[in-house]
Amino acid sequence: MKRVLLLMVLTIIFIFVEMVNWFCFLLDEITYPNWRKTSIRKPLFIVGMPRTASTWLHKTLFSDSGQFTSMKSWEILFAPSIIQKKACNLLGKFDRRFNGILSNPIKKIDNFLFRNYKPGHPTSFFDIEEDDIVLIHILSNMFLIFQFPGSKRLRNLAWFDVRLPEKRKKRIMWFFRVCIQKHLYVYGNGRTYLSKSPCHTPKIQSLKATFPDSRFVCTFRHPEQAIPSALSLFFRYFKIFENHLEIKNVAEQTLQMADHWYAYPLKIFSDWLSEDYLLLDYNHLVHSPETTVSEIYHHFGLTLSDEFRQKLVAENQKSKTYKSNHIYSVSEFGITEEEIQERYLQLYEQYLKSSDESNRKKESVPVSMVENGQSGRLDRGNRYL
Questions:
Q1: How far apart are the first and last CA of the chain?
Q2: Residues 259 and 243: beta-carbon distance below 8 Å
Q3: Tell me, what's the pLDDT at 359?
Q4: What digits encode the pLDDT tens for the residues 72-85?
Q5: Which CATH superfamily is domain 43-70+127-362 in?
Q6: CA-to-CA distance for 187 and 195, rounded, in angstroms?
Q7: Are 177 and 210 in contact (CB under 8 A)?
Q8: Is the pLDDT of residue 367 over 80?
Q9: Which residues on neighbouring strands pair with residue 48, listed in sequence order?
Q10: 40, 181 in Cβ contact below 8 A?
Q11: Confidence band for 205, pLDDT divided at 50, 70 and 90
């Protein structure tokens, strides 16, 4: 009964929000017809299995505000159109002038609504978020699986490139491209669009076809850590939406998805030019953030400003005391570490090997860190643990 009531409330809210959103999409065509001319140049996509420090990487790169721009939760859910974004910007100016008269009560609601998402995946309307969620407006976002776990149409999104009909793939990618164009129309200002979502992992090929000059960072982690952590997070999400599935069922569905997601990037990247993608080990993102983020800038020829370099130095200091608050045990899900190793360890070793081979190629490039778009040598003394 509780689940039925929750779904009824969410459905009513969804219908009302979507009526507003699509009406505003229509107004965009009248008020801002030039949005279609907005270029999306060399977007950067962060992909990979969940629980591989991709959220940390996303937020760290986004803090280089002169270089990158990303969608925030409020924009993804409630302001996908240009006219909504501009209206929210005006409200933001009004709010700042009157000391948070609008934002303060919203923040209290925000803290209440997302209290159950901590510590697994801290969420807020005011933070950047996985932009794959914008596809909820066309009912093509994987997060809907936690509300409707029995839907085959939604489950197939986890095998996006290989299971979806071409017509559906093109429709989804068209809408995603439109949403990015509308974001850049308002917030671009010469910045690179930065996207992050594990849900992009099964659609790497479609993303590359839609954005031919796109670049990809794929984060990876030892399976004994990544798989149980993902299981713990997904089980928490199912409970939030009152889906009291057996742990065994959650584990089975997650492992089926992980079989594909873990292997797919290696398969696709093997046919790409090395400058279009970069593989990053979780251990180095967490324990050597300055070196690892600098490696991203080096690899893609991005400018590393002095201001952002100082932020990385601060992150390096934080990494020395880092401790995850996401507590879980592999035994909770009826799986042993030996089973996980047997299933995924070979793939993990392939990631390490591919990353090592890429690094050896870059070792021949001289000089220091990336400055003003120039290539440079990075300190690799702490490359692998």
A1: 50
A2: no
A3: 65
A4: 999 999 999 999 99
A5: P-loop containing nucleotide triphosphate hydrolases (3.40.50.300)
A6: 14
A7: yes
A8: no
A9: 219
A10: yes
A11: very high
